[in-house]
């Protein structure tokens, strides 16, 4: 069991704190790495669980987890889906045949997937692509046929893409519409432009059409002013929460409402501006780099990349803590029947892979 030890032993003693804080303030230069390596106040409430279990290993740059019946479907950035049958551990990696050229540079690639309920293995998928020298993202429907996933339909194309900030999470909401996170594609001001699809949360129908009550007529935009959102989760009341990468720390948890402006790049952290929503929680000088997020029982469970942990944010107490760490970068989480599943993300060139990385793990939340 790898429950975090929140402080190095030499710093556990209270009497070291004033001295330590001086060092922290003296050394704080906005460098993410340096800030990130320091203990964080909200992490001192680390909680633990009794058991964790490896479901599978040797995943190849995994990005999203979903599940139907006893089988996990894990998207992998180079254009494959690996299935894992939980009871037997049997795995199968299948290619996805795309109609546009997959772009896997930087943070791009075959990213979000969401299985379509009541179908015989159909899924929505989000991927970065290259066309005439430009990088974009698109949302498609794919179907498993024999031993390959074939692209069947395009739902949305030309979501601006780049080496960084491609967003990429797709999830079906409680309203049975498809929600999509689009990053600012390294053009911060585009997040404020409601003519552009970058820096947005988008919402479309399963057939790609625009819901009648979307806030900007004829547009898939649901909310705007986002930097690089990668986590979406709904509470039992249907409230949408989103996690988003901040600039120089200040990662955010936002409570999302239709048509609202979440401020990027005009405000960050505790800053406020008329007509813009501030996050319900942000990480100050710490960096989580939050990716996939799930809601369960009043809490958000958040995969953290640079923050190398699964974090828990208690909505009522407005407090975050580490659920588990010691597996490197975490890309996505999935919760079912009081079990949390997570995938590591150490094989994309930014992590330090262990021998059998990447892995799909299970933790009991009971
Ligand atoms: Ca914001």
Rg over CA atoms, rounded to whole Å, is: 20 Å
**CATH architecture annotation:** 6 Propeller
Mean pLDDT: 88
CATH class: Mainly Beta
Poorly predicted regions are: 1-50
The helicity comes to under 10%
Classify the secondary structure makeup into a structural class. mainly beta
Could you explain the architecture of this structure?
The chain has a single domain, classed as Neuraminidase. The protein is 4% helix and 42% strand. The protein contains 2 helices and 25 strands. The structure holds calcium ion.
SSE map:
Layout: H1 17-27, H2 32-36, E1 52-56, E2 62-68, E3 71-76, E4 80-85, E5 91-97, E6 101-102, E7 110-115, E8 122-131, E9 134-145, E10 148-160, E11 170-172, E12 178-182, E13 200-204, E14 221-224, E15 228-234, E16 240-245, E17 252-256, E18 281-282, E19 290-296, E20 299-304, E21 309-314, E22 319-325, E23 330-336, E24 339-344, E25 360-364
Parallel strand pairs: 5-10
Antiparallel strand pairs: 1-25, 2-3, 3-4, 4-5, 6-8, 7-8, 8-9, 9-10, 11-12, 12-13, 13-14, 15-16, 16-17, 17-18, 19-20, 20-21, 21-22, 23-24, 24-25
The structure holds calcium ion.
Task: Provide tags for this entry.
single chain; 366 residues; mainly beta; Neuraminidase; 9-stranded mixed sheet; 4-stranded antiparallel sheet; 2 helices; 25 strands; globular; disordered N terminus; binds calcium ion
Nutshell version of this structure?
The chain is built from 2 helices and 25 strands. By secondary structure, the chain is mainly β.
